[in-house]
Amino acid sequence: MPKPLPVLSSCDGCGACCQTVSAPPFRIDHLVNEPQAKGVPIELVEEFMTTWYVRLQITESPCMWFDSEARKCRHYDIRPDACREFEINSPSCHAVREVWRLDD
Predict the structure, then answer these.
(1) Structural domain of residue 30, as residue ranges?
(2) InterPro entries recorded for this chain (predicted)?
(3) What is the pLDDT of residue 67?
(4) Within 10 A of 69 (CB to CB), how many other CB atoms are there?
């Protein structure tokens, strides 16, 4: 039986929730407006817009903004609402951490 997951005080060094979200999860109907409203540089908007649909077809692919060495988002300050709303230590957080066993 796996050991229980620790309670986290920060998302730093985790990134479990970024492991299967291949593109930043901006809402489809807001792919241009939401990033621009958040101050996402146009180069980043163009980067994910050109590969968004293709990356969605790739399973087991981490988010294109995820830095796998540092285990954090490269653009955390301008992350999508979906990422902001994903609560640390929530049942969803524990579920993805359990799958990826990043706490072992």
Answers:
(1) 18-100
(2) Puta_zinc/iron-chelating_dom
(3) 93
(4) 5
Helix runs in 1-104, H state only:
33-37, 42-56, 81-85, 91-100
- Specify the residue for token string 């540092």: 70
Give the pLDDT means over successive 10-residue stretches in the chain (104 positions). Answer: 77 86 70 73 78 69 88 89 88 86 64
Name residues whose C-beta falls within 8 Å of residue 48's C-beta, 6 or more positions apart in sequence: 23, 24, 26, 35, 55, 64, 65
Determine contact, residues 74/83, Cβ cutoff 8 Å: no
101 close to 21: Cβ distance less than 8 angstroms: no
* Total domain count, the chain: 1
